Amino acid sequence: MSRTIIHLDVPDFHIAVERVLEPRLLHRPVAVAVQTATRALVYSTSSEARQNGVYRGMALDAARKNCPDLTVLAPRNDLYSRATQAVIAILRQFSPVIEPLRFGHAYLDMTGSQRLFGSFKDAACKAQKEIHNRLRLDANAGVASNKLVSKVASDVVYCNGEQLGLCDVQRGHESNFLAPLEVGFLPGVRRPVKQQLYELNIRLIREMTRVSSEHLQLVFGRFGLVLYERARGVDNRPVQPPKKAPEIVEVETLQQDSNDFDELMHLMFRALYAASRRLREKEWTTRRLVIELTYSDHKNSLAQQCFVCTQDEYLLTTRAQQVLQKCLTRRVRVRKLTLKLCDLAPVPQQLSLFDTPENQDPRRAALTQAMDRIRNRYGEQAIQFGRAA
């Protein structure tokens, strides 16, 4: 069965979501940036800001000089995540095979759904209207036989400035559709690659199709073969829904941002003991511990460590202290600590011959079980470790 894919894209997603909540931002130059950070960079911009010379990745000070009327908003990733999930929930009405990209972008595999929604173009139009009516967000859509061409089709609509724009590329016309476009429309052709192509006097995609794959590989290495296929609209990648491995997550948010090591260690112990208790309740073991710190300037640092499969919180405590020390790489105050236990597996029914001595102390296991029984009977506060109390 021939594949049909829709790419939906809410342009300037961060700004669009903020404008839904604050209509006064409509038709004004708006940017998203961390204003408290030293040498802050612009994270996202509205079309009005771009018309005034403000672009993504630009220093915030330079952006304000270019556009004195610029409204700068602090990033709210939790809000953008919730808005993205709301968009995905609507799209699930049209296809069970969805691949979310970043905020406000997704691929839908519509193969075999014509009896339900009619033509694929009509299905894309219905999805756009549903997103607009329920969330007040305007999405552009590209319909094509593969992910590459559908993505380019939605980008073309965006560049034309159409609201609720829709571009349907007929099967077999992929190469003709791409030919007159600039090479920058191809995914992966960023500024360095684009500059190299310009130096080769290649500005349009049709000009790239006249170059052999050998010559492109000579200049770009293995990526040259990718460019050769993309210029012809060839893309065999399937739409892949995200696969989330089971994990246990504990999040501790500081009442006031701090880089005090003792306070961070206290929060880490509290998160660890809560996570290890959940681990034992589910009768799982873990072999990887991850700690992620979110700083006051909204940047993150992450560290992790692998070890023998265990649910022993004493062993996890030693590992967690080492991971936290590796994770603290900046002098900026910390806002949030996230601890994850990953690579989970059921507790083995048979003891292994190769367990390390630190993972098979029966006295420690008996003590942990006794503490769990006390907590089950008298509550979580009945018995605690001093460093987590």
Overview of this structure, please?
With 389 residues, the chain is of the alpha+beta class. It folds into three domains: 1-168, Alpha-Beta Plaits, CATH 3.30.70.270; 172-242, DNA polymerase, domain 1, CATH 1.10.150; 248-388, DNA polymerase, Y-family, little finger domain (Dna Ligase, domain 1), CATH 3.30.1490. Helix content is 40%, strand content 20%. The chain has helices at residues 13-21, 47-51, 60-66, 77-91, 114-117, 120-135, 147-159, 174-178, 191-199, 205-208, 213-220, 223-231, 261-281, 313-327, 362-378, and strands spanning 5-9, 30-33, 42-45, 71-73, 98-100, 105-109, 140-144, 166-168, 248-258, 284-295, 300-310, 334-342, 345-346. Strands 5-6-1-7-8 form a five-stranded mixed sheet, with helices on both faces. Strands 9, 10, 11, 12 and 13 form a five-stranded antiparallel sheet that branches. The chain has a three-stranded mixed sheet with strand order 3-2-4. A hairpin with a 4-residue loop joins strand 5 (98-100) and strand 6. Helix 4 packs across helix 6 (120-135), helix 11 crosses helix 12 and helix 13 packs antiparallel against helix 14 (313-327). It starts with a strand and ends in an 11-residue tail after the last helix.
